[in-house]
Structure formats: C-alpha cells, structure tokens
Write a structure and sequence with these properties.
The structure holds two protein chains of two kinds. Chain A is mainly alpha-helical. Chain A is built from 15 helices and four strands. Chain B folds into two domains: 208 residues, Rossmann fold, CATH 3.40.50; 154 residues, Response regulator (Rossmann fold, 3-Layer(aba) Sandwich), CATH 3.40.50.2300. The chains are: A mainly alpha, B alpha/beta.
Chain lengths: 347, 389
C-alpha cells in the first residue's frame, strides 16, 4: 500500500494520474456512459442531459467563484447569451451548429469580459450586485429586442444535424452533450496545474499578496470572467439544442441562484464538486417528483404538496452544507474514500 | 416444488396483461409558478374527475391514469415533461396547461399526433390546418377580445366620438395572444385603441403603467392576465382615481376577485367561460357531492370546474374512439363533438376538422356588492377570418 508521495523525477511530479487505477476506471466510466442511451428511457436520458449541461455551466461558475473568488450572480445572463446567440446564429444566419456553438461561446466570452470589468474595482458583495446588473440588462435586451429574439415568446430551434443526421432525440443529443462535457472537465482540471490556474487561486486567497508577487490582477480577473463565460456559452448553446426552445423565462435569476447552489453544495473550488453539485441539484427535484407520483396512489394530493417541498428542501440543503460541510459533496466523497483506503488500519 | 413455483410464476405473469391496462393521460400543471392560482384547482379538478370516472367503471372498461408533472409555468420544463409523456409513458393524450408552453410545443404535437387539450385558449391553437392536434379547452382569447370590443361598440351612445379602449396585458405569450387580433378587430369595427400597457407576469405594482394610461383616458380597458395579478391593477387604478371601466378575460376574474380587490373590484366586468362554484347547472351537484365526500374542508373556484371539464371531455373522446384508441382516433372523436353537453359547466362544445374553437358563447359577469354576478350571455360570430389568430 502507498503511504506517501514518492516523486523522484519531474515527469512523475507532473503526472495527471498518480496510480494506475483511475485512468482505467475513467475509461470504463466513459465506455459505460456511451452505452447509456441504448438502455435508458427518454426520461432518464433527459435528466442525464440536463446534468451534463449543468456540469459545464457549474464548472464555468466554479472557475470564477470557487477558484478566483469573484462572486457572480450573473451566470443566468451568460447562459442566456450563449443560448440565444447559438439559436440566432443557426436560425437567422444558417450557421451549422458545430460552428454556432463555439462562435456563440466566443461571443459570450466577450460579454463576460465586458461585465468582468467592474471586478477590477469591486469585491465581494459589491461585485455580486454589479453582476446582478448584467443579469437585468441582458434580460431586458432579450425581451425587448424582438426582431432578433422574438421577445417574451421565444422561438423554436431546429435540431442540430451531423452529416445530415438530425440530433432530434435525447439519445442522440446525449452524445453531443457528453462529447463536450469530457473536454470541459479535462480542460478545467488541467487549468489548475498551469500558471493561469495558480494565478486564479492566488487572486482568490489574497489579491493584494498576489499582486505583490507579480500576478496581474487586471489580466487574471478578466481572464477568469472570459473562461467562465465561455463555459456558460457552451452550456447555453447546448440548452438551446436540448430543449429546442429559447425563451427568456428559462434564464431567470433563480437559474443563477441554482448554479450558485450547485457549486456550494458540490464544493467551491473543486472541479469534481461541480459535477456532484450539478448532479445533485438536477436529481433532487426529479427524485421528489418520483416520490410524489408514487404516493398519488395512496394519497392523491401528495403531488401538490411535494411540488412546493422542492424549494424548502433546497433551502435546507444549502443551510446544511454551509454549516456542516462548507467544502461540499466533494469533501464528503474524499473523506469517504480515504476512510476505505486506510481501513481498517487508519493511522 | 420448484415446478409448482414456476407454474405459479407463469400464472402471475400471464394474468397481468389479461386485466385491461389503464389508459395513460399526461397531466401538466403549474402549482408553484405565476399561474398557480389556476393550477392548484385545475390539478384538483382533473384528479377528482379521473377518480370519479374510474369509480364509474372507467372508459370502455379501462381505467384512466393521470401521469402528472408540475412545471412552474416554465416552457423548457414543459418540453421535458412532454418528452416524458410521449416517449416514456406513451400517453394517449395530454391535458396541457399554459399558452407559452402549448404554443412552443405545437410542432412536436403535430409531429407526434398526440391530442393536446390545453388550458390555453390561445387563438393560435384553433386552426386545424396549422395545429391539427391542439384542442383549446374553452372559448379562445381572440373571440373573447372580439366580444369585449363588440360590447363596447354596442353600448356606445355618444355620437360625437368613437369609444376609446386600452389593452393591459401580461408580458408573456398568454397575455399577448389576442392582442394583435384585438388591434385588427378594433380597427375593423371602429373602436379607437388609444393605449397598450404591458405588465410583468408577476405583478407587484401597476402605477406607472396606469399613469401612462390615464393620460390617454380610455373609456374601457381590457385586462389579460391572471386572477392573482388583476387585483393589483384594479387597486392601483382605484388609488389613482381612474374613470376607465375594466373588462377582464376568463382567467383574470372569478369568485375570488372581490375578496382580493375589495372596493376596487366593484363594477368591474369579466368574460367567463365556466360556471362558478355552486352555481345551478346540471353537473354541479355531482361536483359538490364529490367535494363534500372527499375533501370537504377546502374551497374551490372556477378553475376547479375547468379541471373536471377537460377530463370529462378527454374521457368522452376516448369512449368515442373505441376499444383500442389511438391519437388519431381520439382527435377524430374530439372533432365529432357537436353541441356536446359539458354538464352545463360551459355552453355546449363543438369541434370540427375545420375549426377548433369549442364555442362562441361566454357569459358577461360583473362585480356587484362584493360578489361576481352574471349579467347575460354574450357571443360572437364564428367568423373563419379570425381562426388561428
């Protein structure tokens, strides 16, 4: 059994996987994921797809909030810019989706850059309020720029096509979503092994100290906004393709709060935490719904009662995590893992 | 012993399909969103009606089963629910809900051939050439706004000028649904549309909109939003001392309005599609008995009747579609309804394969002495020119 770090060369220090098991397990997991659409029903595929989209969005937010310490409640706005630009590029300009999604994500980055500027002067709660402005300005533009966005009514997005093969079912779009989730996770995971990622963490831990040791706050704060909103842009583009409607109400302030809850529950400053949080927040209402549906046989009004319970459970979960497990599900998983790793001889 | 067990197992497995399978119906409702004032009673009504039908032996010997999803009035969640209904649950038909989601789902509904009875009465769902599987469950919003404009015109005695009207509507697909047709119809019959005010879906204050409207001084204003939010408009208007007379569409006014808006509600008119709770119509006794037997401690308003109405309509169509109903069969059955008696909850319904407007009749109601009282029946021509608009 390994009981310490034995790094004797730079190569071993820079290795991504420290033991041989994780890459094998990961490959097995990916292979398993690829088989899911063959067996899962539409309903669970739909849930999985929403989890996949939420993972990309949550990683984006975690890079900004969890790793760089720049609080943002404008994430719904970034998602909406991604979704609307993808949809408009495809519907109005006829751009194919494989080009539209990166273009839209680039556009969202520019948008993030713009609304990241206040972060140079503002911190904490003040920055949060500044990003709130981003949210309301975007919502206003989307509702009133009717020629482009069709206002409050929104519009339908045709399914993406790959070589004339329409991605019009949940099983097909599943591959598109997870084909993007995998690189998104790897990029983020690797980001924090680079100079840029370390700079982000330095800015978060103490920006003055970071500036003193030569980290350009100007550069890295804005870069965090750019990368974060690029992720949001991709997630938004996938949302447009998954629900195939873009609609202003889909990007309400509650969505931004949901994403913040994801990274709080999952674990701030943890890529794996973003995944757990995204899965938790997407699954919770579904599990409650299933519970309600199975209870309706016994008690017909359970359905109505549990619909309102969702928000209460969310609220309680957030309080619980903030008080007892501020590092979220990721931390719980780590404790669980190390317990079994060392069991029965914990030392 | 093992053989015996296997035999029993085979028997159990074989017996299951022998009992007729329940017919699944998708049930989409909003219990937490901005229209939950309607949704709670609608959901209750649908549940009760299904239980009632099942107690009476179901439809063609098969039980009905509601597959329910709560969607908070958010179209993307409605799309997810719809996919689940059609692809996983394989429902025969869907009892839908609001205008934003029903309008967004139009292409899917037409493609999947799933009859879709909606709580949305949007005029955009009434043309079978465009939306063959959409069945709005009541008099369409476009007919309602035409009724309003006709009523204004008929009652207008001042020959020196035309009557001036304003539209106040919620900033969503539901609020906006009849507005374009309303503009065109006002022009056609010679009523001056002097102002349009857009109010947020969730309304807390309408003062600024009403102050703008006050400058245009309309004689009448048509309000197109929900029962929960109409009192905000009425109270603010009362506070500002506006002289405008209000007419509210079917989802904006019901038994609860006088209690919510108090003196501000006095003299406000409404267009109503269904009977009120406890009103003397043929089916009401069944509903009230059911209520007294199963949940005597709650209260209901007109949305509860709509929940029953749409479920009864679905059951009737399934019955007419025969023992092995299909989506197409149910659609044809719905289109065969001619002056179908809705237990007196609404005027009789008629759908044809050319016109999915169920009726052209409604009731004009007015708030008087803290109560909503009917004035008279109102109707409008079934003019094909306004179909699908």
């Amino acid at each position: 059994m390994r009981c310490g770090d034995f790094r004797v060369s730079y190569a071993s220090d820079e290795r991504i996987f420290e033991t041989r098991l994780p890459p094998v397990a990961l490959a097995a997991l990916l292979a398993l994921l690829a088989l899911v659409p063959l067996v899962a029903g539409t309903y669970w595929l739909d849930v999985l797809n929403r989890i996949g989209i939420a993972i990309i969005g949550a990683i984006g937010l975690n890079i900004l909030v969890g790793f760089t310490g720049q609080i943002s409640i404008g994430h719904a706005a970034f998602l909406s810019v991604g979704a609307y630009s993808t949809a408009i590029l495809e519907v109005k300009a006829g751009v194919p989706f494989w080009l539209a999604i990166p273009l839209a994500a680039g556009l969202t980055s520019g948008f993030g850059l713009l609304f990241g500027v206040p972060s140079l002067r503002l911190k904490g709660l003040y920055l949060a309020i500044a990003t709130l402005a981003a949210h309301f300005i975007t919502a206003y533009v989307i509702i009133h720029w009717e020629r482009m966005t069709n206002g409050v009514l929104g519009f339908n997005v045709p399914p993406a096509t790959v070589f004339g093969f329409p991605l019009d079912s949940d099983a097909r779009i599943f591959y598109l979503i997870f084909a993007l989730v995998v690189p998104a996770v790897f990029f983020a995971k690797n980001l924090f092994r680079t100079k840029v990622g370390r700079a982000f963490i330095a800015v978060r831990d103490r920006d003055v100290a970071a500036a003193v040791i030569g980290v350009s706050l100007y550069r890295y704060k804005l870069l965090a906004f750019v990368i974060s909103s690029f992720y949001a842009g991709v997630a938004g583009g996938l949302m447009a393709h998954h629900s195939r409607i873009v609609f202003p109400d889909a990007f309400s302030l509650l969505v931004a709060i949901d994403y913040l809850a994801m990274i709080i529950i999952g674990g701030m400053g943890s890529i794996l935490g973003s995944i757990y949080g995204a899965a938790f927040m997407t699954l919770l209402p579904e599990v409650l719904k299933l519970g309600a549906t199975s209870l309706t046989g016994v008690y017909p009004n359970a359905f109505g009662l549990i619909a309102s319970a969702r928000d209460i459970v969310f609220g309680l979960a957030i309080i619980f995590f903030l008080m007892y497990e501020p590092q979220g599900l990721a931390r719980i998983w780590m404790r669980f893992r190390s317990f079994w790793k060392l069991w029965p001889y914990a030392y | 012993m093992r053989q015996l067990l296997l035999a029993l197992l085979a028997l159990a497995l074989g017996a299951a399909p022998a009992a007729a399978q329940a017919i699944k119906i998708g049930n989409l409702v909003d219990l937490t969103g901005p229209t939950s004032d309607q949704g709670k009673d609608i959901a209750q009504g649908r549940n009760d009606a299904v239980q009632y039908i099942n107690e009476k032996g179901g439809v063609n010997g098969r039980k009905l089963e509601l597959v329910s999803v709560e969607y908070g009035f958010q179209p993307p969640r409605a799309v997810a629910a719809y996919k689940k209904f059609v692809e996983d649950d394989k429902v025969l038909l869907v009892l839908g809900y609001g205008t934003p989601d029903t309008e967004a789902l139009r292409p899917y509904i037409t493609k999947d051939k799933v009859p879709y009875i909606s709580g949305s009465y949007s005029g955009h769902l009434t043309d079978p050439k465009m939306t063959p599987y959409n069945f709005p469950g009541g008099i369409d919003y476009t007919s309602q706004i035409r009724i309003f404009l006709n009523w204004v015109k008929e009652g207008w005695k001042d020959t020196s000028r035309k009557p001036k009207v304003a539209f106040i509507f919620a900033d969503n697909a539901y609020g906006r649904a009849p507005i374009e047709a309303g503009r065109a119809y006002a022009k056609e019959i010679g009523v001056d549309l002097v102002d349009e005010e857009v109010i947020p879906t969730v309304l807390t204050d309408a003062t600024s909109q009403l102050l703008t409207m006050k400058q245009k001084d309309p004689d009448f204003a048509y309000i197109n939003t929900n029962t929960q939010w109409v009192p905000v408009v009425l109270k603010d208007s009362y506070k500002l001392g506006l002289k405008t007379k209000y007419v509210v569409n079917n989802y904006g006014i019901d038994e609860r309005t006088p209690a919510l808006a108090r003196e501000a509600a006095e003299g406000v008119y409404g267009i109503q599609d269904v009977a009120y709770w406890g009103e003397n119509v043929p089916g009401m006794k069944t509903l009230m008995d059911w209520h007294a037997k199963h949940h005597p401690n709650d209260t209901h308003a007109s949305p509860y009747m709509r929940g029953w109405l749409w479920t009864l309509m679905a059951a009737e169509a399934i019955k007419r579609a025969g023992p092995n109903p299909t989506g197409e069969g149910v659609k044809k059955a719905l289109e065969s309804l001619r002056e179908w008696d809705t237990w007196g909850i609404t005027p009789p319904f008629t759908y044809t394969n050319e016109d999915h407007r169920p009726t052209n009749r409604a009731r004009l109601v007015v708030v008087k002495g803290g109560k909503v009282v009917p004035v008279r029946e109102v109707s409008v021509e079934r003019d094909m020119k306004w179909i699908g608009r």
